[in-house]
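Example record used in the benchmark description.
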Amino acid sequence: MLRELLSGNSDIDPAQLASAAGLPDDPAMVAQLMSQLQAAMQYSGDGVNWDIARQQAAAIAAGSSQPFSPADRHAIEAAFSIAALWLGEATFISELTVTPRLMTRGEWVTATMPVWTQLAEPVALSIANALTEVLRQQAPEEMSEMLDNASKLMRNIGGTLFAMQLGQVVGQLSSEVVSGGDIGIPLLDAANGAELQAAILPQNVGPFGQGLDIEADQLQLYIAVRELAHARLFRHAKWLRLQLMTSISEFAHGIRIDTGRLEELAADFDPSNPEELRQAMVSGALIPPKSDTQLAALDRLETMLALIEGWVDVVTEHATTRLPKSRAIAETVRRRRAAGGPAESAFSTLVGLELRPRRLREAAALWQRITDAVGAESRDALWSHPDLLPTSEDVDDGTALIARLTAGTGSGDDVDQAIEDLLNDVSDDRPRENRDGSADEPRE
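Model output (structure tokens):
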């Protein structure tokens, strides 16, 4: 079927195939899709060819990317300088050692694509392995030798489609994000020893503020404070990035394909009407319900994202008290993160998870309670080790955590001792969740 399609002898309309894959119904895009699929037939490499995603995203970003003006540069550089001073009053986490950047949309794509491919690769490989396994299970034994070539072909074709979809999503995101930490994960951290960097996309700040009736300088300053807070946190808690990526990988490795649903689609597939196939792909109907392991990984990920965003919210609120309209901007940011943009929604469909904090308000409320109870310094000290952080249960009800942190007279030494007790797990006999999700046995 693939050979017939790519030779032009098939009844399948390439535009319909592009639509089923979630790509735009654009003649140039369809032509590119067919060219990439033909190249995939001859691809001799192993794994997903992520160069396709990079090229796709770069092309989309280049079509709308505009250089920022000297005035934009001066205004945002000044905002970063003021933001650093204000953050010094709101948090004890140290400053960045690398100067923040101003980025075009194209530069953002180039800088962040390594992290996007790292996020997507476990999912792409899991789906490819699942499809290959389905093919082997359903085929007669005498066809096993033939299936070796067919499996490789399917992996290449599937990987190409996946890479093009990812490129489409990242290209669209380049027109939505306003800063490096806008998605909630450290996209500008290359994980190769390079220092974490903060960044703002001036071209996207203007559209973000449309309809808010808020002066541009206030908006720029608020975004600069928030971006610096996010980058400082990941620089300080060096284990944090790895923990997020590990949870995402654990979730992805559990992806399986619903073979029964796949067989039904294959039996009833009408080449002239791929809408059912498109709906199955978009809705995730081919992927069975999440396993217990996946649910545990997802819970850890959502809790961590909520704790990160909640801490950033609280610190930003304290740092921007001088801004007359800071509360209005903060509420806009929260709603935007809760809803997600079109491209973020497309990424959640493609990868199977949402990079948004579901319990952001609850986590922010907990961080505020901790700040009120023990102060900003002891609050920030909780990021020194993963075992010190509030748990999912603490986000639901932080009374016990607050009680342990404020045990004794509440002096600095007592707070330090309470934090040490939490780390050593000597304050009670509850099982404690490790970084890998397992639980320690209660101590005697």
